[in-house]
Specification:
This protein is of the alpha+beta class. The chain contains three helices and six strands, in the order ααββββββα. Strand 4 and strand 5 form a beta hairpin.
Length: 222
Amino acid sequence: MCGKTNNYDDGNHDDRTNSEITDNEVLNKHRDDDDDGDEVRTNSEITDNEVLSREVEFLKEELAKEKELSERNLSKLRYLMADFDNYRKQIEKQMEAKIEEKRGQLFIKILKIYDDCILALETLKNGNYDSTVIGGIKGIMTNFEGFMKEEGLVEIETMGTPFDPNVHDAIGFVSNELVPDNTIMEVIRKGYLLNNKVLRPSSVILSKRIGTNKDINENDKE
């Protein structure tokens, strides 16, 4: 009986050994599979990193291109804005010049009316007219003068000053030995400046010395 028992036990021992061997093989196989999986995952991660790196480089290149394009467009926009600003300033200057021209033309017409008032006043002073009429004309002229002053019209200085062709218009001469030649002796029509520009020159009479035989002989001796 003892021998049977031993035989029975040996049989079980062989079964366990075979089972353990099988389990070990399965375990080793799983381990090999895990190692292969890790290697696959590692290779996959490397591949993903390379793709990601390439995408990043591509995006950097695209970003650089877009940045360059944006800078070019911004530069063009700045040039366009500068051109538009210059055009706007030029148009404004042309409009201002046109307005000043129209104002000048209007003031020339107003000055003609003012000249007529001056002539009318001189006529009234030389005749026997009622002082009320003369006072009325003077009142009109005062209003004219106030309006012209407010609008920037300045009377050109004339009497007793040297002739200046830029602001004076000589229409005649008068003999005078007491003052230098070309001194303004009489103002026929007043001249005016508008914004420091000649709106209308003054019409004036100038002095002129008349040479005598004595002066000619003295000049010849010199």
